[in-house]
Amino acid sequence: MKQNLKDGIAAQGYDVVSFFNGNPKKGNETHTSTFNDAKYFFISLENKKKFESSPAQYTPEYGGFCAIAMSEDKQLDPNPKSWEVRDGKLYFFTRILFGIIDAKRQWVKKPEELRALADAAWAKMNV
Tell me, what DSSP letter sits at residue 26? Predict the structure, then answer.
C-alpha cells in the first residue's frame, strides 16, 4: 500500500488518535507504534494503546495523501491542520490547492461524490 511518509513517519508526526478527539497534536518519539511499515507518534500512552487496539480505524484515508487531490488521481502532501473526520474516517487536505482555495472547502460541498472518486483512484493506485 502506498503511503505518504517522510523518513518512515506517517501523518507528518501528528498523533492520529488526537484528530478523533477533535484536538490534533504532534506526537513524540516517546510513544510510537508501527503499522503497515509506517511509524506513528502519539502524545500519550493512552492514545498509543487506542491505536494499537484498532490501527485501521485511526490511519488516515488514502495513505495520508490529500483527499481532494486523490479524487483527481493525484498524490499531494496535505497540511494536517486541514482535516476532517467523517463517518469515522480521517481525511487530510492541502491548505491551498493550485494556489487559490482550501481543498477542504471543496470536499465538504460534495463529500460523497468526491470520496467515491478518491476511493476509485486509490484502489487503482494500490493494485
Answer: B
User: Beta strands of the chain (E only): which ranges?
Assistant: 28-35, 38-42, 79-86, 89-93
Alpha carbons 115 and 65: distance in angstroms, whole number = 13
CA distance 18 to 44: 10
| Half-sphere exposure for 50 (CA within 13 Å, toward CB) | 17
Residue 100 pLDDT more than 60? no
Contact 118, 108 (CB under 8 A): no
Coil vs helix vs strand at 113: helix
Residues 51/26, Cβ–Cβ less than 8 Å: no
pLDDT 10s digits, 50-76: 999 999 999 999 999 999 999 999 999
Could you state, in order of their start, the residue ranges of all structural domains in the chain?
11-58, 62-125
